[in-house]
Structure formats: C-alpha cells, structure tokens
Amino acid sequence: MDGLGLDYVLIDCPPSLNILTVNALVAAHAVLVPLQSEFFALEGLSQLMLTIREVRQSANPSLRIEGVALTMVDRRTTLSQAVEQDARENLGDLVFRTVIPRNVRLSEAPSHALSVLDYDPSSAGATAYRALAEELMSRETA
Ligand SMILES: Nc1ncnc2c1ncn2[C@@H]1O[C@H](COP(=O)(O)OP(=O)(O)OP(=O)(O)O)[C@@H](O)[C@H]1O
Ligand SMILES: [Mg+2]
After folding, report:
1. Domain limits at 113?
2. 96 with 43, same domain?
3. Where is the signal peptide (predicted)?
4. Does one domain contain both 22 and 85?
5. Where are the beta strands (DSSP E) in 19-73?
6. pLDDT tens readout for residues 25-68
7. How many CA atoms lie within 13 A of 13 on its CB side?
8. Same domain, 64 and 133
C-alpha cells in the first residue's frame, strides 16, 4: 500500500453509522461488510449503502464496496438459511461465496488475546477466515 510496505489496512468500525464510521469511509479505498446471519440485518445494510453513496458524492468518489461477508452462519437453522438467501438474492455477487460459520473457537480467541489464526489455526472459524482472505485477494486480481 502506497509505499508503507503494507498490503492491507483494516479499519474496524462500530456497527452504528456515526461520525467515526463516516470518517473511516472517507479514508478507505473499499468497504467490507460483515453481515450477521442470525437476524435480518439487511435493513441496516440499505442505510449503509445510502451513506456510501453520499460519501462517494462528496469526500471519497472512488470508495468501492469490496463485498459482504456472512458471519455466524449456521445452515442447520432456517433463519440463517433465510438471511443467506435474502442477501444473495438482493446483493448478488457482492456477497462472498465464503461464509463464516458460527464457531466457538472464534468466540474463545479474544479472551486469550489471540487471533483465531494463532489460537486454533485448524478450527472451522480460522479455516473460513483464511478462505475469505483468499477470496478477497482473488477478486482483486481477477
Ligand atoms: N462466527 C462466530 N461464531 C461464534 N462466535 C462469534 C463469531 N463471530 C463473533 N463471535 C462472537 O460474538 C461476539 C461479538 O463478535 P465481534 O466482536 O466480532 O462483533 P462486533 O459486531 O465487532 O462487536 P463490537 O460492536 O463489540 O465490536 C464476540 O464474543 C465474538 O467472540
Ligand atoms: Mg467489532
């Protein structure tokens, strides 16, 4: 990234659309949206899309949407299936093929102050996050 020796800088934002989030949208090249599959978060997503449009029209015209990543996915539940189907129907290719499953290792890792990639690299959660990173990188080179 621009002479800093970094490939990616991730700015982790709160879920609410406040001044901090908008500042991040102004500073960023792209937005990666985690979408929790446990409740209908699509309404919040349409508000985010409107905000992204406003930021494009003002401070950051080249801001792009990198993609929407479904998280906490449990395909055994009808709710999770419904959220995934709804997201794919409405957002199409914006939704990453890779989904992040509900995985207890992901919830344990922070209490050990570790990334899940260090805490349990072979867990389903770590495997899914690596696959998501690969998919993101392959989209950028495609
Ligand atoms: N895929 C998952 N499976 C199981 N637990 C998860 C998963 N993703 C997140 N969690 C757990 O859910 C909680 C919230 O996750 P996380 O901090 O990623 O959400 P957040 O929306 O960024 O929250 P915050 O607003 O606090 O930043 C944490 O306890 C985390 O360990
Ligand atoms: Mg967070």
Report:
1. 103-142
2. yes
3. none
4. yes
5. 30-36, 64-71
6. 999 999 999 999 877 777 778 888 999 999 999 999 999 999 99
7. 20
8. no
Residue 93, Cα to own-chain centre: how many angstroms? 14
Shared domain check, 7 and 68: yes
For a mutational test of ligand 1's pocket, the pick from 12, 107, 132, i.e. the residue with the most ligand atoms closer than 8 A to its C-beta, is: 107
- The ligand with the least distance to the CA atom of 36 is 1
Atom 5, ligand 1: residue with shortest CA distance = 107
Q: Whose CA is nearest to atom 10 of ligand 1?
A: 107
Q: Which positions ≥6 away from 56 have C-beta within 8 Å?
A: 62, 63
* Same domain flag for 87 and 119: no
Task: Output the domain CATH number for residue 23.
Answer: 3.40.50.300
Determine whether the shortest distance from the Cβ of 72 to ligand 1 is under 6 A: yes
